[in-house]
Amino acid sequence: MRFSFPSLGYHNLLLFLLVLVLFLGSPPVVQSGSHDYQDALSKCILFFEGQRSGKLPADQRVSWRADSGLGDGSANGVDLTGGYYDAGDNIKFGFPMAFTTTMLAWSVIEFGDMMPPAELRNALAAIRWATDYLLKTISQPDRIFVQVGDPLVDHNCWERPEDMDTARTVYSVDSVNPGSDVAGETAAALAASSMAFRSSDPAYAETLLRNAIRVFEFADNYKGAYSDNENIRSGVCPFYCDFDGYQDELLWGAAWLRRASQSDSYLNYITNNGKTLGAEDNINEFGWDNKHAGLNVLVSKEFLEGSAYSLQSYKVSADSFMCTLIPESSSSHIQYTPGGLIYKPGGSNMQHVTSIAFLLLVYANYLSRTSQTVNCGSISVGPTSLHQQAKKQVDYILGDNPMGMSYMVGYGDKYPQRIHHRGSSLPSVRDHPEFIACKEGSVYFNSTNPNPNVLVGGVVGGPGEDDVYEDDRADFRKSEPTTYINAPLVGVLAYFVANPN
User: Fold this and answer.
1) Are 456 and 46 within 8 A, CB to CB?
2) Would you say 135 and 54 are in contact if contact means Cβ atoms under 8 Å apart?
3) Please, which pLDDT band fits residue 33 given cuts at 50, 70 and 90?
4) Where does the record locate the signal sequence feature (predicted)?
5) Is residue 441 part of a domain?
6) Counting CB atoms within 10 angstroms of each CB, which of 30, 185, 295, 415 has the fewest?
């Protein structure tokens, strides 16, 4: 959506507004009143159907998508159809896909009982689309297929997934070239998903847990970062390179196996290996690459419940992380935009916003159930304060921000129209059945027209540190949606469906 002023060009207008902001102070936040969290939740889950790869089912609701990637893995003699495209391209990156799966499952575990029954079914379907694929990636002993598609070739095209004629290169790790990070996250995803399916499909849940145990053994027996493997480094870096080491994924995988199996062997693993695997490092990060803050929150549950005193150090770290998110705390050092959005420099900022909001709510619930608070120096922070911090973030995403726009596509009256997403920006196969080759899509990429296909529910990377969003398809850091932005938001929105105030 672009403003229309007769005397000022668009970019000059933006410059004028920025100068005005600097002169007048922080921009006013447009309050849109109460939000329809149930509508947002429904759309947030629907987004995953727009990201599906493989043979689409009869009940597929995103009708402008069609079958794609049907030959994935065939050159290597393995079926790797299915799964999700991570963002606006046509690659299946295993590391962020596994993290996405873990967060979808954690959303159901913590907040599934707050979802309307239809949305819980849709959330489980979204998880299963991923877990069915992850099971295929671990079908061979001591090998994990971690990626399908050459990103350098793919990113040189602007092409619908249905038309893909680029190399569907398959990348894998094994006992000689290990990948404890991807394996640990895959183990976490399968273990968490086993809990999500335990009541609705116990047989499937058992299959997931059994495989999670096997994959974790591979991760722990053959230690190493997958992007250190020269055979696949060019395919995963710089996109989903392991920047923070594989150690956190080992603890993360063990923590989820402890939660899912209640086996003391995993509790002992977390307790005995915490220091050597860096559990006390980088506690203020949580995302597809760095699991530390999420690990601390997850593990703290047992300590708060009084059943695992050996985990106290994790609880201390979780408390410290929460204090950094409270503006009134003397230890606060998380950056916020003038409009109140959590901001971390780099790309795709909303991934930090949604994952941190999720942790705020989960930890608040753990504290509430055990009647505890967090000591943040001069102030004591309780569950209500953490809930409020999370609500500010989700309301900003849905429209309470200086731009007065929703950053979830299809929610509200004003939302991004020109997202960085191939399938959304190119005419659908239904409307344009003719093949669109690699470079033939460039005209659509360069167009200033709104995308013809609305990717309902997709949350984009979001505004910059100045709260400004230009709705520019080429600016992928701001305008590209990703699965790992949406996954934790599913749980956050489910909470606010049940607790809107």
Assistant:
1) yes
2) no
3) low
4) 1-32
5) yes
6) 30
Residue 182 CA to residue 161 CA, distance in Å, equals: 24
**498/104 Cα distance (integer angstroms):** 18
DSSP 3-state assignment of 474?
coil
CATH number for the domain including 301? 1.50.10.10
Would you say residue 12 lies in a domain? no
Flag whether 262 is in a domain.
Answer: yes
Max CA pair span of the chain:
70
Distance CA 479, CA 313 (A): 39
What CA dihedral angle connects 135, 137, 140 and 143, to 10 degrees? -130
Q: Give the range of the structural domain holding residue 77, as residue numbers without chain letter.
A: 34-498
Give backbone dihedrals phi and psi of 389, rounded to 5 degrees, phi first. Answer: -60, -45
- Residues marked active site are found at 420, 471, 480
- What is the phi-psi region of residue 421: left when phi exceeds 0, alpha when psi lies from -120 to 50, beta otherwise? beta
**Is 329 part of a structural domain of the chain?**
yes
* Residue 227 pLDDT: 95
Domain count, the chain: 1
CA–CA dist 299, 297 (Å, integer):
6
